[in-house]
Amino acid sequence: MDADLDTLATALYVKADDLLKAYPERVPPRPKIGIVPRITDAELITLAVLQALLGFTSEARWLRHAGKSLRPMFPYLPGQPGYNKRLRRLGETMNWLIGVLVQDSDIWNDNVWLVDSTPIECGRSRETARRSDLAGWAEYGYCASHSRYFWGLRLHLVCTLHGLPVGYALTGAKADERQAFLDILAGTPAMNAICSNGPRQILIGDKNYFGQEFEATLDRTGVELLRPTRKGEEPRPGTRFFKPLRQIIESINDTLKGQLDLEQHGGRTPAGVTARVVQRLLALTAAIWHNDRIGQAVRRSMTAYDH
Fold first, then answer.
1. CB contact at 8 A, 282 and 50
2. Is residue 112 classed exposed, middle or buried when 0-12, 13-18 and 19+ CB atoms within 10 A define those classes?
3. Which region among 106-115, 191-200, 265-274 has the lowest average model confidence (pLDDT)?
4. What CA–CA distance (Å, rounded) separates 64 from 61?
5. I want to staple 13 with a disulfide (CB 3.0 to 4.6 A). Which of 27, 46, 175, 269 is the partner?
6. pLDDT digit string (tens) for 33-90?
7. Taking the CB of residue 45, how many other CB atoms lie within 10 A of it?
8. Distances (CA, A) of 35 to 32, 248, 265, 291
9. Cα angle, residue 177 at apex, residues 101 and 247 outer, rounded to 5°
10. Mean pLDDT of the chain
11. Quick check: 245 pLDDT over 80?
12. Is residue 139 within 8 Å of residue 128, measured between CB atoms?
């Protein structure tokens, strides 16, 4: 296969269509009597992935573009309201599909994980923070990496050195990163299987992943933590090895924000934000999965798919 957008779309559609036919319980339920959708769930998911890869943050503009350029691939396209509604309902399906694609690649069981959190801004004005449907989940927080305050959420991401997401969570901006990782680990069976069945898993994080109790919990689950030495601590082993690797997670976050427009999600409700974040994570996963299938040297490269 070639590394181009049409080939990726075809491979993803075939994979998703086969999976959703084999596991019909993974798609949103529909009444047995009613209008039959003119675009299947697999087609809509593929369309959503292409939207993220091509950098369209407006669903209306994306559907206009698809109507002119992608008609051979998608004979029928829904209107923007229908597309938005279907996409939000498919959030759980896309989340499940990410896990399947991850385990279908040859690099998912890497013995090194990277973990970090990144802000997802959801609004700026005080009135938005007070009246938004996201109020109570989204909150004010501080991003030390960019020296800025924001109102919104945090995406906690665990991935391999190739950038393949193996676990993630969306939390409020002030959530404890250590607890978020433990929740991801407990809620992701594939991560538990890696820890239980293989050698000790190495986890590389920043200075926020600290604490004797936290490290003891990781040790019991078969995870060895590497992080920078905090002020007042004795020098920690392995620092010289993981410093270059630590920059990879920053590069992955930059891919999500710079190429997949993570912070321009446009969501205004919990379901809308969740669906759009999962949409972009699925696009990243699909690109890495496809590159792995065709033997590309750089698995996270999206140059062939973003135009």
1. no
2. middle
3. 191-200
4. 5
5. 46
6. 878 889 999 999 999 999 999 999 999 999 999 999 999 999 999 999 999 999 999 9
7. 25
8. 9, 47, 30, 38
9. 65
10. 91
11. no
12. no
Amino acid symbol at 264:
Q
Put residue 205 in one of left, alpha, beta given phi > 0 → left and psi -120 to 50 → alpha. beta
Phi, psi of 166 (to 5 degrees): -110, -15
Q: How far apart are CA 258 and CA 85, in angstroms?
A: 26
Q: What are phi and psi of 238, to 5 degrees?
A: 85, 5
Say if residues 9 and 50 touch (Cβ distance below 8 Å): yes
For residue 16 the two structure tokens come to 């998703």
Q: Which domains are seen in the chain, by residue range?
A: 109-262 (3.30.420)
Q: Are strands 165-172 and 201-204 parallel, antiparallel or unpaired?
A: unpaired
Amino acid symbol at 253:
N
165-169: long-range pairs with CB below 8 Å, 24+: 165/98, 165/102, 165/281, 165/284, 165/285, 166/102, 166/108, 166/113, 166/190, 166/191, 167/191, 168/281
pLDDT of residue 1: 54
CA dihedral angle for residue 35, residue 93, residue 84, residue 8, rounded to 10 degrees: -100
CA angle 192–260–273, rounded 5-degree value: 70
Joined together, the tokens standing for residue 265 give 């999600």
Q: Which of these, 77, 159, 65, lies nearest to 117 by C-alpha position? A: 159
Q: How far is CA 277 from the centre of its chain?
A: 6
Residue 151 reports pLDDT greater than 80: yes
How many residues in total does the chain contain?
307
Rounded to a whole number of angstroms, the CA Rg of the chain reads 20
